[in-house]
Specification:
mainly alpha, Farnesyl Diphosphate Synthase, lyase
């Protein structure tokens, strides 16, 4: 299909997300502080890069994930979100590394080393230097366990992007199960969700954070947001005849679906995960758990809702039309999705 063959556009379906909208009251102050840091650390190489950063509205983004956060912790989280959006745009989704499976891993390894050991001498790379400064702040303000959780999630993100780059370089469209496993990490959701502890403060005890139920809830929140982002961007990508890796493109390619049919199926898959998330979160919250875990579970819900609210007003998605909110899921089938990589989410956790 060529761009001239494309229909007027692909309409978004209403979002099912029965979580109320929320945003941190000091978002403007946090944004000013983060942008001052961007300028001081030299993250933006030129005016165009700084304008790109401003368009991400990163402070608004994470202030919706952590509406009750400690302001100092929120400042650290927002700095990384600015960093993450620019790094993703320049080195993961576009640029000379984005389709070179030989060049991306050593570059990513150098950046990850700055995250793993923020006290080592940084390489001559503005991204490595900037993220090193961010992670040092995590160790100064929060616990080593929280900083290490972030570093581990960051490594998972870069590993998955290397997988995505390899697919892109060979023109490979993964099947739905492989795409789901990959998308859990390529969206950057792991480190972004790890920032909830950094922003809010309390450390979730390891026995709770590493339990199968909480791990499943964390992955569900990440995947819902990732699939939502796929839906947010699909109309623009379709208009531009962009057939890169995206949930709707994967469904259209492997199931021979029309784009509108692929979007409808994507929404059904997404709503089934959302339904399972709500049910399992309610069950876990009913158990005798720590206050830190309750704060974290609330944050997962805010992350799903906040990601949608941010996207609907973000220049990043270029005038996305708000489709409204659905009172019920498009598919409330309680059975596991037939995807081996995530079917365990429906186990008795």
């Amino acid at each position: 299909m060529t761009a001239t063959d494309a229909p007027a556009g692909i309409s978004l379906r209403p979002f099912y997300c029965p979580v109320p909208e929320a945003v941190h009251p000091h978002v403007a102050e946090v944004e000013r502080g983060a942008l001052a840091w961007v300028d001081r650390i030299g993250l933006a190489a030129d005016d165009e890069a700084r304008k790109r950063l401003l368009r991400t509205r990163s402070a608004d983004f994470f202030s919706r994930f952590a509406p009750c956060a400690d302001e100092d912790g929120l400042q650290i989280a927002v700095r990384w979100v600015y960093w993450g959006f620019l790094f993703d745009d320049r080195r993961c989704d576009a640029g000379r590394f984005s389709d070179d499976p030989l060049a991306f891993p050593p570059m990513a390894a150098s950046v990850q080393r700055a995250v793993d050991a923020p006290w080592c001498e940084a390489v001559d790379d503005r991204y490595a230097r900037a993220v090193q400064d961010i992670v040092r702040s995590m160790y100064e303000l929060r616990t080593p366990t929280q900083a290490r959780r972030f570093a581990d999630a960051h490594r998972g993100w870069l590993f998955a992007v290397a997988w995505q780059v390899a697919n892109r370089a060979r023109g490979h469209m993964p099947d739905l199960d492989d795409y789901t496993a990959m998308r859990l990490h390529t969206c950057g959701g792991g480190p972004t969700i790890a920032l909830l502890e950094i922003a809010n403060g309390p450390e979730v005890p390891g026995a709770e954070m590493d339990s199968p139920a909480v791990r499943a809830l964390t992955e569900m929140a990440i995947l819902i947001a990732a699939w939502d982002n796929d839906l947010h961007s699909y109309d623009k990508e379709f208009r531009e005849d962009n057939t890169d890796q995206n949930l709707a493109n994967v469904l259209a390619h492997h199931r021979r679906l029309h784009p509108d049919e692929a979007v409808a199926e994507a929404v059904r898959l997404r709503d089934r995960v959302m339904t399972r998330f709500l049910r399992l979160r309610e069950a876990v919250a009913a158990r005798p758990v720590s206050g830190a875990l309750r704060t974290y579970l609330d944050g997962l819900g805010h992350a799903i809702r906040g990601n949608i609210d941010w996207a609907l007003s973000s220049p990043r998605y270029r005038g996305l039309v708000n489709p409204g909110w659905a009172d019920e899921p498009s598919d409330d089938n309680p059975d596991p999705l037939p995807l081996p990589t995530i079917a365990w989410w429906w186990d008795d956790l």
